[in-house]
Amino acid sequence: MKRLSDRIVERLREELDLPDLASARYESIRRIGAGGMGTVYLAHDSVLRRSVALKVMNLADANGSLAERIRREARIAALLEHPSIVPIHDVGVLSDGRVFYVMKLVQGKRLDEYVKSDASLPDLLRIFQRICEAVAFAHTRRVIHRDLKPENIMAGAFGEVLVMDWGVAKVLTNRLEPTGSDSVQSGSTEAADRAELRRSDEVTTLPLGLAPGGNNDTAAGTVIGTPAYMAPEQARGETDSVDERSDIYALGGILYFLLTGRPPREHDFVPSSAGTVGSRPQSRISDRKIPRPLEAMALKATAPVREDRYQNASDLADDIIRYLEGRPVSAYRENILEIAGRWLNRNQVLVLLILAYLLMRLIVFFSFRT
Questions:
Q1: Looking at the domain 108-324, which fold is it?
Q2: Catalytic: which of 45, 112, 147, 165?
């Protein structure tokens, strides 16, 4: 009877496409989604009694290298304790040799789906500001993402904004350690983890994203990232040239997407040689409804030359804040009419009071004349 029930359970697992987690502490409940590299399930953690997201990689890990690379990513995530960066809780291997890892379960929508809702432009810009702040924090820890795109951003059901998929992240070398409150003692566990991660310049864990094919697939080989959001130096495979400003290019691409509803480059490209790269977004965004300051920010962030971009993500976040507050931004020089219009927009109550006062004076003036 027991063998029969086991066969029934096994058949149900096959029908529902659920992994056998008998050797783990997790119980798979249902499939959430799938990508080229693996499948994500809603699972239950029987020890901590909580719901988690569990991803099972498609290929078996014959020599343990895949599990080790995923552990590397988990350690990178451990360096980035931030409200907008999703941690990895656990890594393991199933009985069939496939690697799985466990993450915080995020309820919400990917950014590319969220923009299709009725979200206002200020709402989208506040989300973008928080993305920039999360990336800026990662940069202070000497970690660059290398695959920022709308599909790797989650807008949570409770207002949280989460930067996902640190699977191709890189820990920069030959840089000073954070100072002040962020300093890391050389003998600490974190310093040891950082040093170990740096031994391999290319941290190339398989991508965690669930994006289907097309523009969203991460390019293979030495060119790491997503073509539509990839900086020129990254597209050319110039590993030593890829730094924080490469992430800023991708952030500019995300801003471009939020403003236009399309990626900065509509067509994928894979460089055929070191000198062949895709073009940047056009020098002007064709949609006349896009405010000039926002257009200037997107184009500055996606400048082909690294030195012409924002030099850190916090500067881009600051410009977004300044725009939302009705103040001038660093990326755009206003003319006198735009300055006046912005002042009027920021001081609408004062303008109405002045107009009301002038109207009252006119009424009094003409009353005395009659």
A1: Transferase(Phosphotransferase); domain 1 (1.10.510)
A2: 147
